[in-house]
Every structure is written in structure tokens, then in C-alpha cells.
TrEMBL record:
Gene responsible for this protein: paaA
Protein name listed in UniProt: Phenylacetate-CoA oxygenase subunit PaaA
SUPFAM superfamilies with a match to the protein in the record: Ferritin-like (SSF47240)
Organism of derivation: Streptomyces humidus
UniProt xrefs under PANTHER family: 1,2-PHENYLACETYL-COA EPOXIDASE, SUBUNIT A, PHENYLACETIC ACID DEGRADATION PROTEIN PAA
Cited Pfam families: PaaA_PaaC
GO (cellular component) term, any one: cytosol
Gene Ontology molecular-function annotations: phenylacetyl-CoA 1,2-epoxidase activity
Entries under NCBIfam families matching the protein: PA_CoA_Oxy1
Record lineage: Bacteria, Bacillati, Actinomycetota, Actinomycetes, Kitasatosporales
InterPro entries: Aromatic_CoA_ox/epox, Ferritin-like, Ferritin-like_SF, PaaA, PaaA_PaaC
Superkingdom of origin organism: Bacteria
Length: 337
């Protein structure tokens, strides 16, 4: 174990010692390992391995991109929401997603990443976002299915991230999860209203669930034995549960909820397994997942085109904010002088 003094020095040291300073490197690594092992948080000014930093930047950026791209399929329905109440709920939800993107880009910035660079990587396809948002929202019921299933899967994934070893990411997740829980409930309530409505409304809800169920299961990522980054992320306590474990948990939560909704999940193999204490479910079509990931999903191109257009249209806002900040800092400089 490192001494308390070494611990403090290493934790607040921004980079590993001088070049070739093997002892210092070793101490920093040991302090980092001990901090993670003790379930304490790594903070922005603490020393951390380069690969840990790179993994977090990649994951947080992908998460941030998913939040802002995820605004598109639902924003598509704001003008067509069937009532003022539904419109207000949907607007609040889409705004929440924008906020989630902002917290997450800020968390990535604490690791030294630049927001401009991350957005550039999104726009040029060098960083990914969740494939789920490459599916279209064909009917109003899709807004309900997204809330119930997509936000539901997001919560299952994100609640354990509140205990992630990197402090700023973990803290951002606390608020994100509270808001996601509202998103999930509004989706469930919307589907319930449709399911209890006319025959056509019930059919519309069922059709939406039929289309969103399998892509939602794919949100947990590839099976554990094919997941490239999982083992290291779990050792670093960035990730707390495996993809398959979280997927199982999600299925177990959804089955009774589907029953209460009066809707059927589109999987004939879905059956309670007494021995395992979980539901068994049918095989996932990973070929489809890989195609969507490669950029061949129904909406990949449209999502990025719209994102770039929104970014370009917002250029004047960024320029104005930067000009205001520059003016403000000059004034402050004069006042201080
Ligand atoms: Fe979100
Ligand atoms: Fe959400």
C-alpha cells in the first residue's frame, strides 16, 4: 500500500512523474489501483492510466452523442402530439435529452477532451452513438414504446454507472437516471392509454412494441464473450455488470410490465425458467445489429445529416457566446487592473 503522503501526492498529480521515473509511475499506478479497489472515486486531477482516460472519453462521448442524436426520432412527433398534455410531456423529455448530452460533454471535458473535437468525430463517423436511434418513429405509439423500452433499457444500463469509478461521470448519472425514470413512466403511461383505447389504438401500440423490442435488447451490446472492452472496464469499475447480465435484468423487468399493459412481447421463446430464476428468451439477430452499427440502418444517414445541419445552424449562437465571453473577460481584466 502507498503511504498517505504518497497517496495524496499521486492522487492530485496531473501526470505520471518525470520521463523514466519508474518509481513514481509505479506509486501512481498503485494508488490508482487502491482507490478503485476501495470503491472511492477517481477525480479529474488525479493521476490515471492513459488507457483508463481513453476508455472513459470514448464511452462518455458515445453516451453524449446518443443523448443528442436520440432527440431526433422523438422531436419528430412534437408537432403531431395528440394533446397539449402529451406535447408538453414530450417537449420536456426531448429537452432533458439535450441536457443529458450537455452534462456528458462536460464530463468528457474534465478528462481533457475538447467538445469541438468530439462533435467533429460524431459528424465524420469516427465516434459512434447508440444504434437504436437509427430506427424510424413511424407512429405516435413509437413515442410510448421508446419511453417504455429504450429509456427503460437506458436506466438499466445507467443506474450502475452512478457507482462508476470516475467521479464526474458517476455524479452526472445520478440526475440523468432520475430524469430517465420520468421518461420511462411517460412512455408506459402513453402505451397504457393506447392499449386501453380503441382496437386501432391497441393495434398501433402492439405494432410499436413489436418493432422496438429486439432493438432494445441489442442496446446492451454484444454477448459477453464477444464484447471487446467489457473485461477491462469491469476491472476498472467503469462497468459494474456484464452486457448479458443487464439484458437479463431488463427482460425480467419488462415481461410483467407488458402483461399489465395488455401487450405481447414478440418472442415465442419467452418463458419463465424456474431453475435460473429468470425469463428465457429467443436468440437475438446480431446480423441486423452489425449492419446498423456499420451505418446501414434505416436512418443512419438522415440522423447525421440533420445533426450537422443543426450544428451549422447553431454556429451563430456559439460565435455570439464566445464573443460575449471574450468581451466579459476583457472587462474583468480591466476591472482587475
Ligand atoms: Fe437521456
Ligand atoms: Fe431518456
Amino acid at each position: 500500500m502507498a503511504t498517505a503522503a504518497a497517496h495524496q501526492t499521486a492522487r492530485t498529480h496531473g501526470s505520471a512523474g518525470q520521463e523514466g521515473d519508474i518509481d513514481a509511475d509505479d506509486t501512481y499506478q498503485r494508488v490508482f489501483d487502491a482507490t478503485v479497489a476501495a470503491d472511492e472515486r477517481i477525480e479529474p486531477r488525479d493521476w490515471m492510466p492513459d488507457a483508463y482516460r481513453a476508455t472513459l472519453v470514448r464511452q462518455i462521448a458515445q453516451h453524449a452523442h446518443s443523448e443528442i442524436i436520440g432527440m431526433q426520432p422523438e422531436a419528430n412527433w412534437i408537432t403531431r402530439a395528440p394533446s397539449l398534455r402529451r406535447k408538453a410531456i414530450l417537449m420536456a423529455k426531448v429537452q432533458d435529452e439535450a441536457g443529458h448530452g450537455l452534462y456528458l460533454y462536460s464530463a468528457a471535458e474534465t478528462l481533457g477532451a475538447s467538445r469541438e473535437d468530439l462533435l467533429d468525430k460524431l459528424h465524420t463517423g469516427r465516434q459512434k452513438y447508440s444504434s437504436i436511434f437509427n430506427y424510424p418513429t413511424l407512429t405516435w405509439a413509437d413515442v410510448g414504446a421508446i419511453g417504455w423500452l429504450v429509456d427503460g433499457a437506458a436506466i438499466t444500463n445507467q443506474v450502475p454507472l452512478c457507482r462508476c469509478s470516475y467521479g464526474p461521470y458517476a455524479r452526472a448519472m445520478v440526475r440523468v437516471c432520475k430524469e430517465e425514470s420520468f421518461h420511462q413512466r411517460q412512455g408506459y403511461e402513453l402505451l397504457l392509454a393506447l392499449s386501453r383505447g380503441t382496437t386501432e389504438q391497441h393495434a398501433m401500440a402492439q405494432d410499436a412494441v413489436d418493432r422496438w423490442w429486439w432493438p432494445s435488447l441489442m442496446m446492451f451490446g454484444p454477448p459477453d464473450d464477444e464484447s471487446a472492452h467489457s473485461a477491462q472496464s469491469m476491472a476498472w469499475k467503469i462497468k459494474r455488470h456484464s452486457n448479458d447480465e443487464l439484458r437479463r435484468r431488463f427482460v425480467d423487468i419488462c415481461v410483467p410490465q407488458a402483461e399489465s399493459l395488455g401487450l405481447t412481447l414478440p418472442d415465442p421463446d419467452l418463458k419463465w425458467n424456474e431453475e435460473r430464476g429468470h425469463y428465457d428468451f429467443g436468440p437475438i439477430d446480431w446480423t441486423e445489429f452489425k449492419e446498423v452499427l456499420k451505418g446501414n440502418g434505416p436512418c443512419n444517414e438522415q440522423r447525421i445529416t440533420q445533426r450537422k445541419a443543426a450544428h451549422d445552424e447553431g454556429a451563430w449562437v456559439r460565435e455570439s457566446a464566445a464573443a460575449y465571453a471574450a468581451k466579459h473577460s476583457t472587462r474583468t481584466g480591466v476591472e482587475q487592473a
